[in-house]
Structures are given as structure tokens and as C-alpha cells.
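Changelog note: in this version the structure field was regenerated for every chain. One regenerated record is shown below for reference.
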Amino acid sequence: MRTHLVNLVFDSALPRDLAGFWEGLFAWDAPFELGFQSVPEPKRGKNRLHLDLASRSPEHQAELVDRALSLGARHTDIGQGPPEEKRVPWVVLTDPEGNEFCVLEPREQYAGTGSIASIVTDARDPARIAEFWAAALGWEIGVREPTIVGLRPPDGRGPWVEFLATEEEKQHKNRLHLDIAPPHGGDRAAEVRRLRDLGATAWRGEVMLDPEGNEFCLLAPR
């Protein structure tokens, strides 16, 4: 068994409050955990990682948006236009700490993913970064388009991991990051070497950087 996804972790000024927002928004049903860690640094600029939430119908999409707004989310414009213009079928919001997320219209591709359709990362070279993560996790590339490349878990459970083309360089430490770990009985040092051979960089402690400088943590085997 290859290294697997363990957590998606948010940096947060108020971790308990932010966890409460996400807990109130939907029932957690992914095969990994959401984590929230206290950091002193404020959010700067648009996040390079964000969540896409799945919906089952237009009514369910509207219900999710209304629930998010009632819990403290806000509409935000990252280029799609204001919500009243409805230039795109998805809705872009920020959580109470300004982390962007999208509530998607129903899409067949995400049927069965659960509440989260995808973890999306902005990428200068989506194909290259997707190939790294496919090799790191042992996942297959399920979608390959010029502007987006998506990985699907081998067992079909849980969110996609997608890489969306952008021209913007990474400027700051990411506000969200992935935690991964070798399986029980695995060798973390050997996994560090394997990931470095794939293009990662060992940075500090458990923290490594993927080929575009996105932070992730390689935890002890579990």
C-alpha cells in the first residue's frame, strides 16, 4: 500500500471556531480528516488551495449556500463576477476566516464523492504537478484537460484532487495543506527518498514541498 492522504489542514487564527463552521456546514464523510491548527500569521491574498463542495440538485446547491451564509460565510468575487449576474453555475464563498470555497452545481463526475467534490490547487503546470501527486499517492489521473488535471482515488471513495491552471506564482505559505503518511509498518525515511526522487523537497521537520513549492506534511507511518 502506498502513502495515503491523512488530513487536509487549515491554518487558522481561531481553530475551534473555524472547525465549528465546517462542522455545521455538512456531515463529514470523506476517508480523511479536516484539521485546524493555530497560526499567528494572517491570511494574505487568495489561497492556492480550496475546496469544491458537491451538490445533488439545484435546490441542494441553494440550500448549501444559504446554510454557509447563515454560519458566517460571505460571497466573494475572484473573477467570476458578482452572484447576482450568475455568469457561472457555481457559487464562490469564503469561510469566516476568508478561505475561498466553491459550492458546485450538480456534476455527474462528482457523484458519490460525498460532501466534498474536490480539493483544488492552483498550478503553473497542472500536468506536471498532477503526475507528481499521482505517483506519490498511487492515484490515477481521471481528467486531463489543458486547464485542469484531476486525480481520482483508486477505490472511488472521497474527493478528487485537482490542479487548476494559473499564471500566478506562489507568493506565501499556503493556508491549507495536505498531510500524508506511509502505511502501518512503512519506512518514513525511505518515503522521503522516494518523494525526493519524484521532485519533492525536504524542507523542515515533517514538512516537504511539492515541485511547485506547495507545503505538505509527511507523517510517521499509520
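Spot check on this record: The chain has a mean pLDDT of 96. The helical segments are 15-25, 58-70, 126-137, 188-198.
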